[in-house]
Amino acid sequence: MRVIWFDIDSMRPDHFGCYGYHRDITPNMDRIARQGVRFNRCYVNSSPCVPSRASFMSGRFGIHHGALTHWGPGSEFRFPGIDKYDTFAPLLPRYLRENGYRTVSFSSFADRHLANWFYAGWEEFNTSTLKRGDETADEVNAAVLPWLERNGASENYFLHIQYWDPHRNYEPPQAYFDALRDQPAPDWPDAGAIREHAANYGPFAATELYPARDGTPPNELMPARIDTVEDFKQFVDGYDASIRYMDDRIGEVFSVLDRLGVLDDVAIVISADHGESMGEQGIYGDHVSASEPVHNVPLIIRWPGVTPPDRSHDGLLYNVDVHPTLCELLGLPVPQGWDGESFTDALRGEPWAGRPYLVWDHCLYTCQRAVRTPEWLYIRNYHPGLFPWDDVMLYDMRVDRRMTRNLIKDKPEVARDLDGVLNDWLQQNLGPGSMPDPMGEVIRTGPFKYVRLEPWLARLRAKGRTGDADRIVARLHDGHGCQ
């Protein structure tokens, strides 16, 4: 079997046409969705990039693989084995290779994050460039397309292709940006929401879009800050133009496979390492919390001879649930040590309910865990980082998918039940013989990686936001482990 996994960085599912987006920016990926099955409620167990791709490699939750942040305490990937590889929870590419598949990756992720464990098990690994994630989809395809010309018609390969273009800073070709000028932006955030977002004093907030810079946009396409709906349109146009540019490059991959006569015989998986905030919680264009838009990712699977055309499912599932499903479809035994549960029935068009709930976490800019049920999203804040969010948050996702109203005081019984679910999940996953929870190390040292505490306080004070800086300090010293 030929399998291609498209691994897209920072991709929101609701910016696909097949997920209902009003802009036509994903025609090539939408075509695959019409031929297969789309999952509306797929979520990564751990975000952002390093934790999520550690789950991609290991098939395990972040609480087990250990890499909950990008570097430092709490980031150590718990390699499966000491002097030899553990067959109980094998790495995905190594396991497939051991079972006769040629495993090939085109990705600069390991180089970008110095995550050498990501190289393990691949028969071939190509970083495309030395730009460490700043390469364009054209530069990725410059390596991918020749490989496909030589090998695309061969049998039994697992090809992993990663594209970075939707990751900020958005820098699409001007023509792609211009093509969106007359197309309306999403109808939220509206002017009222944007005014409220000005109160958020954390990185990537409406008035702090570029925390690594002095407020200057990274390119002429982007606004300096978001004060109006016109500013937001300019910002989201950059994101959407980047997606459309990438989708055209994915179309080039399909064209090569079609010319080789094998496109209809290739199994295709389209997914992402995490999503991207576009105003939710006052954050624009990044991934800083255990929120819905950060953890919700696209999942589109077209499997020849298995998937019925143009189906969708609303059941809850994790990114790691793809691993046992992949094995079942390939006729391979499912390793017992993986955390995923197969959803092969859903791909075959048979009844499938999904998981009753999910638990996920984020440990780069904040330390949070969340419980997601079909109705509710409950978030517990263990360390707020540099953000003003409440210690506990509860959202009714049936009517408030933008997470605009915290119902923690209105629905204490719901919060209590979901907190019990979270505690039960922790007990199950930190049982006898388990390694310590890696989140504890991040809480102890603080989730201040790309944006450090003291420089951020100085930045706020220099802008006349001394009160906001004082609120951060007071909150951290009030029991959240300021280091």
Automatic annotation (TrEMBL):
SUPFAM superfamilies: Alkaline phosphatase-like. This is Sulfatase. Residues 4-331 form the Sulfatase N-terminal domain. It comes from Devosia nitrariae. Gene3D superfamilies: Alkaline Phosphatase, subunit A. It holds the Pfam family Sulfatase. InterPro entries: Alkaline_phosphatase_core_sf, GAG_Ulvan_Degrading_Sulfatases, Sulfatase_N.
